[in-house]
């Protein structure tokens, strides 16, 4: 009897961690997606579907402004490459039918058709099944704000002028929230969520999309261009599935308005700080300053998306050419307390600048096992092995050229923004006197000194990661 009661209790806890929906066609109850807490265990590999891998495996040339031939089937064929890097989730481009030669997927023509340039619906289903077989998850990029730049009659199902904010206007003042929400971003028809048909159709569509393809999480595009009240309705409809919102803004006060309607947000404030610190050589103290500001706004920092590169920004190495300092920045992203996101090509040292130069085909590199690939693989293994989402993040030492933090009581991470050699004595560490430590990147053994202090030698910009031997 006791065994039966325990089973029932476990089932209740599990069901409470996922949104439950009834399939209107079959009447079956289904679990939708993975929760915020579950996504905290993930390391995400962001890829542009058109640029990651071709079905035919050819090393083809292409015009970066147009389709290059990447596909769902190409991703399937290269999952060993992604999993070998240590990633356990992928974020792919929007999957819906788009205007001709719109390779990135952000101009939807039909909300109910898959983009045939990427493959068939069955190809997508097989990709997701193969991911799940590997205990990897999929995050799909979705757009609620706008559609393709075309005649309204060509948009399914929003084929009437009344479904859009009118008259068309251009955003000229990003401090004017009404403009941000109602004007047309880059001239793209702006959906009018106030319209009851638009609102209800969007909410029904996303729930059906998640159910149909067994999607684990969403990356939500252009969040600040849609009214908060709409996101409140979406959150109420899908309260537990992880939604990583894009708010392209470094102002913590501004993005904090959305923290209760998006259970994850791309951490642009920290991205800005990491650029200033590791690209421009400004003081490492900025990392702590931004973290303090974020914590004051009561974000769930472990649900934020941490990144150095993405498809909207020049690649990190387009500015910072020093590989060791890039490794220091990567070490922060991979071992700090947000969900780490690696943009495809970072592991190959890609250094493209502004769009579309930052959207290079990965097949140009040959998917080689290069130094940066091996380095990220080590960091991913360290995170999966030693860093649990519940471990505290504490900054232990900060100066203009050095930032150290701990995760729990067993790991200390040291980063730098200079290639100069120097040493630091860290007296405020998580360790105790006499603890045996392994520096995981060089495999050196270190003994913690009086009161747990550590003497750290920083060489040529390389990071250091100390873990207590158990």
Tell me what you see in this structure:
The active site is at residues 221, 246. This protein has helices spanning 2-16, 36-39, 49-52, 72-77, 79-84, 121-133, 177-182, 196-213, 228-237, 252-255, 268-279, 285-296, 323-335, 371-386, and strands at 19-22, 29-32, 44-46, 89-92, 96-98, 108-114, 137-142, 217-220, 242-245, 264-265, 305-307, 339-343, 393-398, 402-407, 411-416, 422-426, 436-439, 444-447, 454-458, 464-468. It is of the alpha/beta class. It folds into three domains: 1-32; 33-390, Glycosidases (TIM Barrel, Alpha-Beta Barrel), CATH 3.20.20; 397-468, Sandwich (Immunoglobulin-like), CATH 2.60.40.1180. Strands 10-9-8-7-4-3-12-11 form an eight-stranded parallel β-sheet. A hairpin with a 4-residue loop joins strand 17 and strand 18. Helix 11 packs antiparallel against helix 12 (285-296) and helix 13 (323-335) packs parallel to helix 14 (371-386). The model is unreliable at 1-30 (pLDDT under 50).
Defining traits:
470 residues, alpha/beta, TIM Barrel, Immunoglobulin-like, 8-stranded parallel beta sheet, 19% strand, globular, disordered N terminus
Distance between the termini: 40 Å
Helix content: 25-40%
The CATH superfamily of the largest domain bears the name Glycosidases
Q: Please indicate the count of domains.
A: 3
Give Rg in angstroms.
23 Å
The CATH architecture of the largest domain comes to: Alpha-Beta Barrel
What strand order characterises the main sheet? 10-9-8-7-4-3-12-11
Total DSSP E strands:
20
Q: How many helices in DSSP terms?
A: 14
How would you sum up the global shape?
A: globular
Major beta sheet summary: 8 strands, parallel
Uncertain parts: 1-30
In terms of structural class, how would the helical and strand content be classed?
Answer: alpha/beta
What amount of the residues lies in strands?
15-25%
CATH top-level class of the largest domain = Alpha Beta
What is the CATH fold-level name of the largest domain? TIM Barrel
- Quote the average pLDDT: 93
EC number: 3.2.1.1
InterPro entries: A-amylase-like, A_amylase_C_dom, GH, GH13_cat_dom, Glyco_hydro_b
Enzyme class: hydrolase
GO molecular function: alpha-amylase activity; calcium ion binding
